[in-house]
Type II toxin-antitoxin system HicB family antitoxin (Haloarcula saliterrae), 82 residues
Amino acid sequence: MSTGIEPTITLTESDEWWIARDIETGVTSQGKTRQSALENLDEAMAGYRGEGNAPSDEELRELGIDPSNNTSGARDESDIFE
């Protein structure tokens, strides 16, 4: 999906990791190679834009999250995103 806006990305190396960061949004990801850091940033940006699928109950359990206690609200309802 194209927004028609050219992203501004920083790409830095720290120890054995490459860190890719979208300046406008602050979304950051990493990878063992430059290419994997950029690919991971693409995936993180897709999630930031609301693309993708919600995790299944099975996936939540694999991450140690109890689906029956997992709640979330809109970003505009949370003080964290101010």
